Amino acid sequence: MEILDKIISEGKKYGDVIVLKKNVNQVASNFSNKEVKTTTEGNTTQLLIRVSKDKKFGYSTTSDFSKWKKCLIDAVNIMKASKKMKNEILLAKPQKFNTAEMIYSGRLKELPTEKMVEKGYSIIKEIKKEFEIPMLSINKSFEETEIANSEGLFAKERETSFSTMVEVKSGESSATDFKVSRDLFDPVYVGKEAEKLCLKCMNPKSIQTFRGSLILDYFAFAGFIENILIPAVSADEIHSKRSPLSKKIGEKVFSENFTVVDDGLMDKGLLSGSFDYEGTPYQKKVIFDKGVFKKPLYDIYSAKKDKTQSTGNCGGLDRIPSIKPTNFIVSPGTYSKEEIISDTKKGALATFAMGYHLVNQVTGDCSLGIENSFYIENGEVKFPIKQAMVSFNLFEQLKKLEIIGKNLRQETSVVAPIVKFEDVQIIG
Description:
By secondary structure, the chain is of the alpha+beta class. It has 2 domains: 2-198, PmbA/TldD fold (2-Layer Sandwich), CATH 3.30.2290; 203-428, no CATH class. The protein contains 10 helices and 19 strands. The protein has helices at 2-11, 68-81, 106-109, 113-126, 188-200, 218-232, 235-239, 300-305, 337-342, 394-399, and strands at 16-32, 35-53, 56-62, 132-149, 154-170, 173-181, 210-216, 260-263, 284-289, 292-293, 328-330, 346-354, 365-377, 380-384, 388-393, 403-404, 409-410, 414-416, 419-427. Strand 5 (154-170) and strand 6 form a beta hairpin. Helix 1 runs parallel beside helix 2 (68-81). It is globular.
């Protein structure tokens, strides 16, 4: 708190000030070809300062806390040299913060580095000897954040995360699985899931191009949500009319089966916490309610333009506006994965999609490859697909979405089930 007080006290001479201080401890164990290659442990520190006055702002950052005065003056000089923004730049007022449960684990923070190496070898031991393991990583992190501003706001929190990624290969077949949690879990499960998927993908076959059903498993569906839908509900995209949902707040835009909540207070959530980068409390808000677009994601600046309040979705101090989701939750349906497959006459099941950088965020048009995918006919998985692409419009598919899985998964900011799209061009 002492260094934040000094920065605020000095910074108030130049304008409104917000300071964010981060301390991160990370440990990573990386394996290749069934042997540990590197184990690294490091502590990183970061001081972020934003100064604003008369509709101008400047931002600077440093990893050396002793150089906070230079960092502050750099932000001030950038502010003075910048152009005025259209609206006033406001700070968050001091207020009460709610706290998400189970985002910090003491036993994870204290997990010895050698135990992480042991966990890596425990994964290798359980995977069949004939399989290659080109990549295996186990990571843990502990992060402590403090925030303060010249309005008198101060808050702090701590959080942990634990992740495992495993790639398994046999001949031309390969598969990857990935899991992240706020607490310890048995990483052997991740390796076994990658092994199972690799086995299923052996001896793939080519397919002819057809129109049919596309079943998107978690990673594939979450990728489309993250790269197309989330930008479309950000207030800055809506204000600039880059979003197809501009001027559609309060209207029914998608299927009544489609409900989405952004919840920064979700217990165990990977993006949960107490406050965003501006010090606005995290909260739970409905984005889509049975297909109706209820509310965009706001930071303080974008909220002022709409004469409303920030939703606690500021994602950084380096630009204004800066909007990011917390835990972006697509509500589950009632179908199991097996039921979705058995109800499919002709289609493909995609575990992953690749090439999200090629999607059109403005129109929702997608044309990209699918990986670890399977051909389905008459309710049965017939064989793994050698190579395929899919082509559809995400916004049009969400308008007619009917089949949604009942199980949710989170490994990114997106919490999502498996879904099925109809009448999709599947290109062999």
